[in-house]
Design brief:
alpha/beta; 8-stranded mixed β-sheet; 336 residues; 4-stranded antiparallel β-sheet
């Protein structure tokens, strides 16, 4: 499988009154062509900040360290189509380079479409802008045609009429489809979806997940899917990475992690998830620690029912879980 995205040791630091904090701390991951990687964790675990850092949209004053290698398509000698590809480190790219990459090579569907869409611009105009910024030589009619194609691909009904409407005139599901159309309009190979089914009813959630799965197959998209819902992960992800307090604490094939989790935090998330079988849900005690007051050792130790003294000595390494497949790793000393 060709590798589309490879992240090595990504760390994001933010300035606060009490000093620098790390909402993303030494995160490494890979994403292959046509693959879906689910990023799971509670609010405050660093999922969205990870996505923003990859897009070059981190908050002002933030510092990024590490590497994020993106496989980019390059035009052939006569400028028509993709002739070859090259790897580029997005963390080392300047503002102008990131503007060329953002939307064309890697795009993002944001969590809340009503705030991500411009309320005073028609939906069609916003999709057109995503095309025009990367292909300014196209004429008006061609841009309009490609806008309607993008809306149709995102399963927006009556694309001509919807293109003339404003975001507030669309339902939540249609706004999310418009966001997907905008993200894919310039033909990126990597799509980041940040909780795209949040605040949608279950029927529309299912439709959006089916749409993303179909687009992944049709366009050979590499999908980085951020969620807090393991039920969604089981439907759409090939692999899963569980984040806690800015770090990946477990990663591996989705089916294996869901059946045989090797980190106590993953186990706790699965126990807290509703099931068809009626039973009492078991919540995880406590809360995610403040980033400026992390424990010395394992960040999950204060909430862990299997805590031992060794957990407080140092931050555990991400190691291969005993008895698991080769690609299943966990940040827990008990996994040895």
């Amino acid at each position: 499988m060709a590798m589309r995205l490879e992240v090595r040791g990504l760390t994001v630091e933010l300035p606060t009154r009490s000093g620098w904090i790390r909402p993303v701390n030494d995160v490494s991951l890979t994403l292959g062509e046509g693959e879906t990687l689910g990023i799971v964790g509670e609010s405050g675990s660093g999922k969205t900040m990870l996505a923003l850092a990859l897009m070059g949209l981190e908050p002002p004053g933030a510092r990024r360290k590490g590497e994020a290698w993106l496989q980019r398509a390059t035009a052939n000698g006569n400028g028509a189509g993709a002739g070859s590809s090259k790897r580029e480190d997005m963390l080392a790219a300047g503002p102008s380079e990131m503007r060329a990459v953002r939307g064309r090579e890697i795009a993002m569907v944001f969590q809340e479409p009503m705030t991500a869409l411009n309320p005073v611009l028609r939906v069609g105009a916003q999709v057109e802008e995503a095309i025009r910024v990367h292909e300014p030589s196209l004429n008006v009619s061609e841009i309009h045609r490609r806008t309607l194609d993008a809306l149709t691909r995102a399963a927006v009904p009556e694309p001509e009429r919807r293109a003339r409407q404003y975001p507030h005139q669309l339902s939540g599901g249609l706004r999310q489809r418009a966001m997907i159309a905008m993200a894919l309009a310039a033909g990126p190979g990597v799509l980041i979806a940040d909780e795209p089914t949040t605040a949608l009813d279950v029927t529309v959630q299912k439709q959006i997940l089916e749409l993303l799965a179909a687009l992944r197959r049709e366009l050979r998209l590499s999908l980085l899917f951020i969620t807090h819902d393991f039920g969604v992960v089981s439907q759409i992800a090939d692999r899963v990475a569980v984040m806690y307090a800015g770090r990946v604490v477990e990663e591996g094939p989705a089916a294996e992690v869901l059946r045989h989790p090797r980190h106590p935090y993953t186990e706790g998330l699965l126990r807290a998830a509703p099931r068809l079988v009626r039973e009492r849900l078991a919540s995880i005690p406590g809360a995610v620690p403040a980033l400026d007051a992390l424990p010395t050792g394992c960040a999950f130790a204060p909430r862990c029912s299997r805590h031992v003294a060794e957990c407080d000595v140092a931050v555990p390494e991400l190691i291969h879980a005993s008895g698991a497949s080769e690609n299943h790793r966990t940040r827990c000393i008990l996994a040895r």
